[in-house]
Write a structure and sequence with these properties.
Blueprint (H helix, E strand, L loop, with lengths): L4 E3 L2 E3 L3 E3 L21 E3 L16 E4 L2 E4 L8 H12 L5 E6 L4 H11 L6 E5 L3 E2 L5 E2 L4 H14 L4 E4 L7 H10 L4 E4 L3 E4 L1 E2 L4 E2 L5 E5 L4 H12 L6 E4 L5 H10 L3 E4 L2 H4 L3 H16 L12
Parallel strand pairs: 3-18, 4-7, 7-8, 8-11, 11-12, 12-17, 17-18
Antiparallel strand pairs: 1-2, 5-6, 6-16, 9-10, 13-16, 14-15
Helix pairs in contact: 2-3, 3-4, 4-5, 6-8
Length: 299
């Protein structure tokens, strides 16, 4: 039974990875789950300098999921290279670094620093606010997305995954823009934009007013977008959004995802990703599937 998948020439032992921002760089989870059992660990966003993030409160529970307005708080590339990367290198799993920035220059600074490391792939968070474009996210304008992808690909020695935002009119157009920019793969969806109001205090629950909505409730939207993106481009697609178990992962793979990421459910059960791997294996045994790749895009 083969669970190995290949993305941009990089072989993963299975198609399950963690979603950026929900697993740190693995340290917080290392005593709670078996990191070696995962296909890859996707790190929390890494910027060229430390980001403080948004003011608190910045996390709220909602029906079927959660809202977060963390603001991509992270210690920056220097700390990542000194502390986090050596930790991850101690495990037998692929390392994918999520890169964030407020400008193209900031993205490129991080990409260049990672070129000579043992990192396997880069995932570029294009949901970041582009300060030079009135805070419009890089991934909300097809031309900017294509240009950003081209510039990152020009500099990067690592395979590049563009992580797409769902907060657009046409996810198909964004997938095509990323492909035309030279992306080796795409991942989606990032969080939807949501809000929660405290009716007793008559105020916003999050200090930022809005936040990223994620969790099981977003799965139908994510599944539809992954299906549309996978049928619009020929490059590998990594699906995410509300995946809670092996059955959810299989849905995404049937829709066209080559691999999947587990996000919000890591907070509910730190072992969710490992259980998802086992769930995929059980599905394969139950249906007599010899190679997991045979079901990708079957619908």
């Amino acid at each position: 039974m083969n669970t190995k998948v290949t993305i941009a020439g990089v072989e993963l032992k299975n198609p399950v990875m963690t979603a950026s921002g929900t697993f740190g760089s693995g340290m917080e989870y290392s005593e709670l789950t078996d990191i070696n059992a995962l296909g890859a660990v996707v790190t929390k966003g890494v910027a060229d300098k430390a980001w403080e993030g948004n003011p608190t409160p910045r996390v709220a529970e909602v029906y079927g999921g959660m809202l977060n307005a963390i603001g991509l708080q992270n210690p920056g590339i220097d700390v990542f290279l000194e502390r986090d990367l050596p930790f991850l290198e101690g495990y037998n799993t692929r390392i994918i670094v999520n890169v964030c920035g407020h400008s193209l220059e900031e993205y490129l600074n991080v990409v260049e620093r990672l070129n000579e490391t043992d990192v396997d792939m880069l995932e570029i968070n294009v949901s970041c606010p582009n300060v030079k474009q009135g805070a419009l996210a890089f991934g909300q304008d097809a031309k900017i997305l294509e240009h950003t992808t081209k510039e990152i690909k020009r500099l990067s020695k690592k395979p590049v995954i563009m992580k797409l935002t769902p907060n657009v009119t046409s996810i198909k157009d964004m997938a095509i823009a990323a492909r035309d920019g030279g992306a080796d793969a795409i991942s989606l969806i990032n969080t939807l934009i949501g809000m929660k109001i405290d009716i007793e205090r008559r105020c916003f629950v999050l200090a930022n007013k809005t936040g990223g909505f994620s969790g099981p409730a977003v799965k139908p939207v994510a599944l539809r977008m992954v299906y549309e993106a996978a049928h619009a481009v020929e490059i590998p697609v990594i699906g995410m959004g509300g995946i809670a178990n092996g059955d959810d992962a299989i849905e995404f793979m049937l829709a066209g995802a080559r691999a999947v990421s587990i996000g919000t459910m890591n907070f509910h059960d730190p072992d969710t990703a490992v259980k998802t791997v086992k769930g995929i294996e059980e599905y394969m045994k139950r249906h007599g599937i010899a190679d997991i790749n045979s079901i990708v895009g079957l619908l």
